[in-house]
Amino acid sequence: MNGFLLLRWVLLLALGSMLQACGESQSPFKDRIGQVLPPLVVQDLFNQPAILKPTPGKLLMLNIWATWCGPCRHEMPGMQRFAARLGNDRIELVGLSVDMDEHVVREYLIEHKITFPSYLDRDLSEVTDVLGVRMFPSTFFVTPDGVLVKVIEGWREWDSPELVTEVRALLPPASPK
To answer: How far apart are CA 108 and CA 10, in angstroms?
Structure first.
């Protein structure tokens, strides 16, 4: 009987941990807002080394995801619409997958018509050591000069007018034509 109770407590703790990813949580990033993030050393989807850093004049929207993550898959189409709605001239949406197999990532992106660039961090070195990600998906907003201005943990409905307004306020000024 004691073994059953112990197993029950372990399962309840595991369930609680999983549910935390679905809700709002106290973010460890609060102290990092306003700090400069270093460029991230990753791989592209053809196993070539790549450096992720903001593009001059654009807010970097960096989404950390995986093909095996249901909430990640759920939010990707909305995220793509979100970035297009804000304007590709002022925001750059980039995915960083923690999957091991680049073929699985490429197939997923093609099958679901996800067109924003995605990269790999197979060993999670950048995702955990540099970014400190605790759950998937996590989305980082970084100014053109590399300053972290916002982090969203967990999935979101990216079509939400409130979220569009909130992120629009972070966009750099439009370039004169």
So the answer is: 34
